Amino acid sequence: MVGFGVLLCMGGALLFLAGVVAIFRPLPGLKMGNRPRAVSGVGIAAVLSIIGLAVVAATVPPPAIREQQKQSAAAAADDQRRASEKAVVDATAQARLVKGQVDAFWIRVKEAQSPCEQRRMAAENELTMISQGRSDAAAAGAVAKAAETTCRDGAVTMMAVRPPPAATGALKKAFEDARQSCADSMMGRQTAMVQLGRMLDEGMSPATVAKYNEQSGYAEMGALRCIANVSAAGDKVGWIMPKALAAETQPQAASRQAASVRKSTR
């Protein structure tokens, strides 16, 4: 609007000059061939100039208003800066609060895993006992069946573990995803125990032994994924998983299982 007002003022000024000249020297090309037309041109020029000035005056605020607008903008910027600082402080406070709750979350995860892991290790131990002549396929199958049920139930228990109460938004989702991966790992254990039972039922043939070793390897990788995801979620708030609470590595467990199965088939 300021540009339009300035344009009107300039047009009025040019028309005014032309009208003044036409009063003394007619300008037919501008339709000011006589004095009455020239005077009319001067009048129109005055009107245009007045309208242009009015538009500019209405658009450009006076100094007092400009100063007020400047102060308002500065105040808004200051409020935004304070809000940003508060958000950083709040996020830091939340991280500290969540960090103090991750230990409890991980302990509940391990508690949900523990019955399954104990039954699973008992079933694997039966394989060693078979190779030593201290157990048989029927007894080992019963232990494997119990482990299968325990691990399936443990996955349900795992999903009932709540993320750290102070975690919200993306942070809460990270812990929920970690919990899901831990539940999935227990379903992997359950599947391995199903395969162990089939291996025992079918006389521990090379094909069933290979299938069991393969499924056990998948289950171990799932267990490591559970640990990694919980650790990654905790890392977002500066939490470090206690080494004493971490499960053994997959290569160690897998090699132990494979050795037990190889011995039991001799």
For the secondary structure, the number of strands is 0
Question: Which spans of ≥5 residues are poorly predicted at pLDDT below 50?
Answer: 247-260, 262-266
Largest sheet: none
Q: What pattern of helices and strands is seen along the backbone?
A: HHHHHHH
Tell me the helix content: over 70%
- Tally of separate helices: 7
Radius of gyration in whole Å, from Cα? 42 Å
What class, by secondary structure content? Answer: mainly alpha
Shape: rod-shaped
How many individual domains? 2
* Through-space gap between termini: 96 Å
Report the portion of residues in β strands: under 5%
* Arithmetic mean of pLDDT: 78
Key words describing this protein structure:
7 helices, 266 residues, mainly alpha, 82% helix, single chain, disordered C terminus
